Amino acid sequence: MIATDETVCDLGVAHVRAAAARLRGEIVRTPTLRVPTLDAMAGCELWLKAESLQLTGAFKARGAMHAVGRLDPAARTRPIITFSSGNHAQAVAFAAKRYGARAIIAMPTDAPAVKVAGVRALGAEIVFAGTTSSERKAAALEIAASTGGVIVPPFDDPHIIAGAGTATWELLEDVVANTGAPLDAVLIPVGGGGLLAGACLACIGTSTMVYSVEPIGCDALAQSLEAGKRVDVEPGPSLADGLRPVGVGELNFAIAQRWVRGSYRVNDDEITRALVALLVHGKLLVEPSGAAALAAALRGGLPGAPRRVGVLLSGGNVEPSLVTRLLQKANP
Amino acid sequence: MIATDETVCDLGVAHVRAAAARLRGEIVRTPTLRVPTLDAMAGCELWLKAESLQLTGAFKARGAMHAVGRLDPAARTRPIITFSSGNHAQAVAFAAKRYGARAIIAMPTDAPAVKVAGVRALGAEIVFAGTTSSERKAAALEIAASTGGVIVPPFDDPHIIAGAGTATWELLEDVVANTGAPLDAVLIPVGGGGLLAGACLACIGTSTMVYSVEPIGCDALAQSLEAGKRVDVEPGPSLADGLRPVGVGELNFAIAQRWVRGSYRVNDDEITRALVALLVHGKLLVEPSGAAALAAALRGGLPGAPRRVGVLLSGGNVEPSLVTRLLQKANP
Predict the structure, then answer these.
(1) Residue A285 to residue B283, Cβ atoms within 8 A
(2) Is B332 at the interface with chain A, CB within 8 A?
(3) How much is the pTM?
(4) Partner-chain residue, chosen from A53, A283, A330, that has the shortest CB–CB distance to B285
(5) Tell me: the pLDDT tens digits for B202-237?
(6) What radius of gyration do chain A's Cα atoms show?
(7) Which ipTM score applies to this complex?
């Protein structure tokens, strides 16, 4: 029997359960999908959680809706501010619009045009600031100071983590409903660690092992787990633009350190193969960051040869021209 | 109040309901999805039924599983034979495999390689026969005569129609569950008319209007409805390879004649635009045939300006190289 009352920094499975209840009707319960060809490639059952089909095209809508929804209504009369490479920006813009608030977003100068357009279409104001997560965070802090606005951070926040955890929570529910048994393992892509920390909380009290997946050269979490303390990296180039922060969040790391069972690093070729295989065989378009966990699953060799493996497809906001290039490169 | 006991040739809504019960656990209950950007393009709420995510990548798995499942077990010791441009072929191969039967499929010589590979991967034997539905039907009849096998026809069959109708049945259920109100209209792509006839049956007793969609130049149903009798056509070229039979089925036409409220014809440019918009904004890959109903929805102007419109995305089996070409052409 595994305890369900464990917490880190007072955060536990109850927070994810409560977030799921609050978010009902506000976000999409995305489908959990099976693709036999991908199962054959991976050598196990893959249970794919398609957050690419979430509002705003990524799981980030969960955390943002949860965090903005829990703000005091008075706080929502001031600007809601964030910093993001793209998907969290769209999510906060969406949540602010839902609650009738003004949104100001610090985005990198090299953000994919599709993500910039998505933020603008939702009526948010954009401030471009450098190319790293620290540069855009500094810009957001300045905006907050000058406007008296509220920052909704992209990952290092209990409400963001609990909201993000609802994706894994639903996945676990779907697998039990379909098979009567729990997932043996779940693979989570890691940028700042919001989805990962949420997954860890969602899995408390279950026998599901949580594994993290990062692009090679953007492996702040894996390095931090190895060092036993938070380590920042200078993110290398990667197709996965959503997984390139300089480091994981403090709260995120504390949770990951307690529950993550192993870390994987995937390269651009593996991400490309996963993205294209999912498109061709699964009929789902994900962004490179959204294909990272599948890339690790397709490599196989998870410890203990798990039978049922959950895979978080975190988002689908990708430039059409990049899809064309990857399809031509993979030539499936 | 609309009667629910209406039938054509003894087929009514009860047959779809019964098929849905039989198919539970055998096929995927595919998600019903919303895409705000597509709603804005169409000027109404689009409720997208993603049969591209069905087993074998198309709604055809429903009819085939239903029809093969209802065969006498003794009949399944003989070959199960069909004729199809692709998706029904894969579906029958899949159903035969599920029931441990041998499958022999007559396919056109110009069938997309992805569909041929799909049939082969499921262990079925393929006989290539001409390029028209009449040529491959003749080949299937010959095979049946020489082997004593059973033909599972692609559309003109009560079990196929009732099975196909379960897609629309689920869509109607999902919309009522989400909104408390029924769909105002549903758009159904038409090849031989299996999905359409099933949709008509599923909608009996509701206020949902059924509209058919065919490629320009492959409009056997629209011509038949106008003539008041079945009319065959010489199918013109169309991206929508699944919607090019020479004519709709007899039973299919009888049902369509009673319940279809209007017919739409879409061209390749409209299909391309719909396919690419769904990929970019909805993150779903469909084949050209699967994008036809969405193409009609995006044109707008449905009679009575319906608020909630169902769209059957019938399948997703498309050559990756075609996806690349269409993405480059549409340059979204």
Answers:
(1) yes
(2) yes
(3) 0.95
(4) A283
(5) 999 999 999 999 999 999 999 999 999 999 999 999
(6) 18
(7) 0.94
